[in-house]
């Protein structure tokens, strides 16, 4: 992250995540300094890095706010932190599964970058959180569909 007003230890980073970004971060386990958060009012969409980059580019082309994005260089995956507005729809989850996209919903665990992750192989911010903004999960799902050639699907009132 560019600058953290509270210093840069796992505990101070958690304070930043909580106070500035409204991310319910905790250090777990304390002796390793790993930072995690339980998905509650923040969910995540995890996808292959190439798809994550395409989604980011599409969002920028459409002047959409992007929000926080994590990279996991070892696994080649990106995580978008999103608002929890993705419906509980088996067809939607199956569609995302076919595209190698995971949805982390309430109760799931999301790992965040920690200053003890000395090696960039673990987790790093592509787009760090700077405030409480997170994009709609449905907006990111639509961008995933567009970038993977899938048709946009909108629910109608009678569907």
What does this structure look like?
- This protein is an alpha+beta fold.
- The chain has one domain.
- It has 4 helices and 8 strands, in the order αβββαββαβββα.
- The strands form 2 sheets. It has a 5-stranded antiparallel β-sheet with strand order 6-3-5-4-8.
- A hairpin with a 7-residue loop joins strand 1 (25-27) and strand 2 (35-38).
- The longest helix has 13 residues, at 49-61.
- The termini are far apart.
Provide a brief overview of the structure.
With 159 residues, the chain is α+β, with helices and mostly antiparallel strands.
Key terms:
159 residues; alpha+beta; five-stranded antiparallel sheet; 28% helix; disordered C terminus
Unreliable residue runs: 2-6, 155-159
User: What number of domains?
Assistant: 1
Over the alpha carbons, how many angstroms does the gyration radius reach?
16 Å
Q: How much beta, percentage-wise? A: 15-25%
What is the total tally of β strands?
Answer: 8
């Amino acid at each position: 992250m560019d600058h953290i007003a509270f210093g840069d230890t796992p505990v101070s980073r958690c304070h930043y995540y909580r106070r500035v970004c409204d991310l319910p971060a905790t250090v777990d386990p304390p002796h390793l300094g790993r930072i995690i958060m339980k998905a509650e009012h923040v969910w995540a969409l995890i996808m292959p890095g190439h798809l994550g980059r395409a989604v980011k580019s599409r969002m920028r082309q459409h002047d959409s706010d992007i929000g926080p994005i994590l990279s996991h260089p070892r696994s080649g995956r990106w995580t978008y932190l999103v608002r929890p507005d993705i419906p509980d729809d088996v067809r939607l989850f199956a569609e995302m599964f076919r595209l190698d996209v995971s949805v982390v919903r309430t109760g799931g665990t999301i790992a965040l970058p920690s200053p003890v992750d000395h090696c960039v192989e673990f987790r790093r911010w592509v787009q760090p959180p700077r405030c409480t903004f997170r994009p709609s999960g449905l907006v990111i799902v639509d961008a995933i569909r567009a970038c993977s050639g899938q048709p946009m699907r909108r629910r109608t009132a009678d569907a």
